[in-house]
Amino acid sequence: MTASTDTLQTVRSLSQEGYKYGFVTDIEAETAPPGLTEDTVRFISAKKDEPEWLLEWRLAAYRAWREMVQPNWAKLNLAPIDYEAATYYSAPKQNTGPKSLDEVDPELLRTYEKLGIPLREREALAGVAVDAVFDSISVATTFKGELSKLGIIFCSMGEAVREHPELVRKYLGTVVPQKDNFFAALNSAVFSDGSFAYIPPGVRCPMELSTYFRINAAKTGQFERTLLIADAGAYVSYLEGCTAPQRDENQLHAAVVELIAHEDAQIKYSTVQNWYPGDAEGRGGIYNFVTKRGACRGRHAEHPRPRRATARHPRGGGHVGRRRFLGHGGTVGGSRL
Q1: How far is Cα 155 from Cα 140, in angstroms, rounded to an integer?
Q2: 120-134 residue pLDDT tens
Q3: 132-179 pLDDT per residue, tens
Q4: In terms of Cα–Cα distance, which of 214, 267, 260, 216 is closest to 239?
């Protein structure tokens, strides 16, 4: 059997199985009003308790986005996206941010267990540290303490802004600028939690780092921002996964991922795109327009060709710059499943 035939049979098998991640978690959420204005951007920034420089960074992106036109290069037969009808922030209600998994809403823990991503460290996947993002916020990150013993920072983007602002400010937007494209500008204005990782010089991360993105709330979009930095001589492997409920209406996913490998560093990046693709009649599904890009900075650059094999495409799926590796430096490799 040829590889292409084997892949085709796999795709058909998955299509016949149906979408098993289409359930909804019944949990009370705090949600921003629909629509996108400067007030929306300020609301998101305030919710995340961000410094003034980052608010101004977001507002500059928003103003640039308002002057842009949505591209039609994909030549897809899609209904127009109503950006004013969408909600750009939704998070489970909680009095304060959980300091440990014992403080995380049990319903959220059950959701990730149902998805096959147990978050309690004693039950977690062997050798994998996970950042679990639910709608607009990270609800838990595993093995942070163990990784920190090696100087590795692995946390949500929001926590990185609060605890490591110098690193975020140094690297944010240096691979995917605010005005890079229509969807990158939108993300830069309203981005919510993604993952942040910094691997110090000469350190090989002993665990696979992983983020699992889950859309849950109706009529919302997800706009995570992920930033991974491997300093000189460092190595990290990162895997991203994502799912969403099965609904008749479309929802938008517009993420940005920035990968930075310094001299002799290596980043292995993989993503499993498993958004709901819509039903057989074309109803529902996730519009997936993301910008993912790696930059090699330093000597001994290598630019391997990423491997890709897609088993289930969301509606309107598109990667912007998914195989664009810039500059001179370590190794940035990736695969898309």
Answers
A1: 9
A2: 654 455 577 888 888
A3: 888 888 887 888 999 999 999 999 999 999 999 999 999 999 999 999
A4: 267
* Rounded-to-integer distance, Cα 88 and Cα 86, Å: 6
Tokens coding 307: 């491997």
Domain holding 175, by residue range, is 3-336
Q: What is the pTM of this model?
A: 0.83
Q: Per residue in 280-331, pLDDT tens?
A: 777 888 889 999 999 998 876 443 334 333 334 455 544 443 333 333 444 4
Measured CA to CA, the distance from residue 301 to residue 39 in angstroms comes to 43
Question: Measured between alpha carbons, how far is 219 from 90 in angstroms, rounded to an integer?
Answer: 10
Domain count, the chain: 1
For the chain, give the number of residues. 337
